[in-house]
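Hi all, long-time lurker, first post. I run a small reading group and we've been trying to get comfortable going from sequence to structure in the token notation. Rather than ask abstract questions, I figured I'd post a concrete chain and ask someone more experienced to write out its structure so we can walk through it together at our next meeting. Sequence below, copied exactly:
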Amino acid sequence: MITGALTKNSDEDIPQCRTYGAINRDPDGEQTPTNAKNSVTYWSLLSENGNFRWFLLSNLITVAGEWLSYVASIAAIEQIHSSSGSISRISISILVIIRLLPSSLLAPVGGVLADSFDRRKIMFILDGVGAVVAWLYVLSYYLESISALYLATLLQMTVAALYDPSHSAIVPMIVTETDSLEKAMILVSSTHELMQAVGSSIGGLLTGFVGIQYCFMIDSLSYLVSALFIWKISGEYNPKDSNQATEEESDSSTEGEENWFSLSNFTKMTKEGISYLISQPWGAFVLLKFYAALIYGVADVLNVSFSEQGENSSEIDVDNSSQRLGILFAFVGVGCVLGPIIIEPCTHMEEISSLERACLISFFLMAFGYYGLWQFDEFILICIFSSVRSAGANIVWVYSSLLLQKLSSEQMRGRVFGVDYALAMLSESASALLAGVLLDDRVSAGQISLIWAIIAFTTLAMWGVYFSRVETLKRTGTVEIIG
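-- Answer (accepted) --
Happy to help. Here is the structure in token form:
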């Protein structure tokens, strides 16, 4: 499956992409520097661009609130099961799956909204809807209904799926300078991972100290605060009103208003995207996140089990396990933040092989992390190896995205990432469900970690062979290097 896209050369008239593995050179054949330092700093970006400050604050609050409710949801499920004298890991797996599926199914609809209306207003309205939805968590808690909690999670993640495309697409409209945009994207990505750690840590502490229901109430408040920050952003952010829109794009937009929800048009565009991927020598890179998600998809379910390690299986101390889960999520968040930052000096955007090596390193870190989780029982060591594993997971997410961003054509990039994201969510959902089934079948979290360490090492070897073959074919000229 991986090697299928290697040697296929197409004479069809397909969109062009950047050269695979090329380095920019001047007319005399000398390599030219492509990543010269600029004068833009993170501080100057934040101090001079007020709209971006409000946007970043909104992002911090939203992410922290969502992860606060996530940890509270896990604690609520444990409490409901504990009160009935039963424990089920499948219930946690279902929660993870419900959090993942709306994004893979409804993100295209969110993309339609983002390209049709003012993105700031979409985010403001959806923040308001999210504040209302959060109160359904409170209701499900008092009803002691896991089904109601699942419904609240589904609605919240539906709001997130519609919100995210506008959230991503508005950044270049807020930060218009190219040098500043790069810094802005790094800040958004890093703070997103950091606030996942903070939100989950606070969630673990608050569930024990103030109660699960109050965590859901705080989540509702976080949406309102986020909406306030979004409202503080000045200007209009409707892509149809952009001065950069060409006449051809405007015509396409007008036509799109009539055909966005046409099943035949959606099917046609999907087939074009898949055909494009098959025709490219780098098309298999779309499977990097798929295999990575298969490996890291069990993590959240295992984290719940590790947080309860040492507890009596029939009488779990929900407050204590929630606090431990919060600490564990904090280490996971730290790993996600540090991973790409540590590996970044070893990579170069104009050297494709360096991005490939980063992906290989990520699979090794995930394998090593799971191996450590199998070997050690001490909670602090579990936290450390979870951090190593999460560093690998975020590295492969970042650098597989950079590979696709660099190699795919502008006309096809949305559909390339659509396939990439959908495959990753599907793989992660299946992995989480399998972990829940295994835990319910009395397979320990340590044993599952060993199984997944073997899977990760196998995946590392497989992609290592694949990347080596790509390099060989590039040197011999077997692979056509432009899309």
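A couple of things your group might point at:
The longest helix spans residues 50-83.
The chain has a mean pLDDT of 76.
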